[in-house]
Amino acid sequence: MTAGIPFTVAGQTVVVTGGAGGIGAALARRFVADGAGSVILADVDATRVARAAAEIGAPAEGILLDVSDQSAIAALIDDIELAHGPIALWCGNAGIVGAEGIGSPADWELCWSVNVLPHVAVARALMPRMAQRGSGQVLITASAAGLLTSLDSAAYSATKHAAVALAEWLAIEYADTGVGVSCLCPQAVNTTMIAGNENIRSLGTVLEPDDVALGVSRSLAEGTFLILPHPEVADFERTRARDRNHWLEGMIRLRRRGRYSPSTTAQPIQHR
Ligand SMILES: NC(=O)c1ccc[n+]([C@@H]2O[C@H](COP(=O)([O-])OP(=O)(O)OC[C@H]3O[C@@H](n4cnc5c(N)ncnc54)[C@H](O)[C@@H]3O)[C@@H](O)[C@H]2O)c1
After folding, report:
1. What is the Å distance from ligand 1's center to 145 Cα?
2. Cβ–Cβ contacts within 10 Å for residue 141, how many?
3. Confidence of residue 271 (pLDDT cuts 50, 70, 90)
4. Does the pTM exceed 0.90?
5. Smallest Cα–Cα separation from 13: which of 85, 96, 103?
6. Tens-place pLDDT, residues 92-107
7. Residue from 189, 197, 205, 206 to probe ligand 1 pocket by mutation (most atoms less than 8 Å from CB)
8. What is the side-by-side order of every strand in the sheet holding 60-64?
9. CB of 203 closer than 6 angstroms to any ligand 1 atom
10. Residue 94 CB less than 6 A away from ligand 1
C-alpha cells in the first residue's frame, strides 16, 4: 500500500483534456518530449486542438471532446483504447472560470459539469479498467483556489475544492490497486484563462505553462499526490489550517485591495 505511485509516460498512451492551449497543451508537449507512445489532446474547441496537436507533432493527436458530456467521455475512452491500447495516464485538465461573484444557477451547473463531473465519469469508465490492469494514473487539474479560495468566482472556488476532495477520495479508494492519482493545484499560470485578470496576476509569480508541465512530469515520476507549482501555496494552506479566522481576515484585506465585482451589493427586498 502506498499513497503515491511513481509514473512515467515513456511508450504509454496519454490523454489530456483541455489540450487546445495553456496548461493542457504544455502537458501534451512535455509528455511527447518524455517519450509517450500516443498523446491525445481532447478539447471542446476542435480547430484549436487540431492546431495544437499539429504544432506539437507526432505522436500528438487532437480530438473533439466536450467534457461536460459524460457519455462522450466514456465513448472516447473506448475509442482510444481500441485504437491505441490501454490509456496509462488520463489528465483531466479542462476547466472554466465561471462568472464573477455568486453567479447564476446556469453558471453553477456549467462549473460542476466541466470542473468536477468529468473526473467522476473517468472514475466510472476508466479507473476500474486501470485497476484490473493493476496500473494507471489519473491527474486532476484543480487549482490553488481548490485549497484556498478564489476571490473572483464562487462557483470556480467551490468546484475546484470539490475536485481536490474527489482526487483525495480516489487516491484513497484506489490505493491498493496499482492506480495512482495526482492533483495539480497551481496559482497563476500565464494562459488565456487569466489574461487581463490583474487580481490573480498580482497574487505572486505567474508561471509559464511549460514550467508547470515540467514540474508535473517530475512530480508524477516521484509519485507526488499534491502537485504545487507555486511552493508558497503549501505555506498558505498551513496558515489557513492553523487559524481560519486569521486567514479569512487576510483574504478580506486582499479583496478590499483588488478590483472585484460588487457581488455583495444586495438586491432590495421585495415587500408584498
Ligand atoms: N491559468 C491559471 O492561472 C490556472 C490556475 C489554476 C488552475 N488552472 C486550471 O488549469 C486548467 C487549464 O486551464 P488553462 O489555464 O490552461 O486555461 P485555458 O483556458 O488556456 O485552457 C482550458 C482549456 O479547456 C478547454 N475547455 C473548456 N471547456 C471545455 C469542455 N467543456 N470540454 C473540453 N474542453 C474544454 C478550453 O477550450 C481550453 O482549451 C483548468 O482546469 C484551470 O482551472 C489554471
Report:
1. 14
2. 30
3. low
4. yes
5. 85
6. 999 999 899 999 999 9
7. 189
8. 60-64, 38-43, 13-17, 87-92, 136-141, 179-184, 226-227
9. no
10. yes
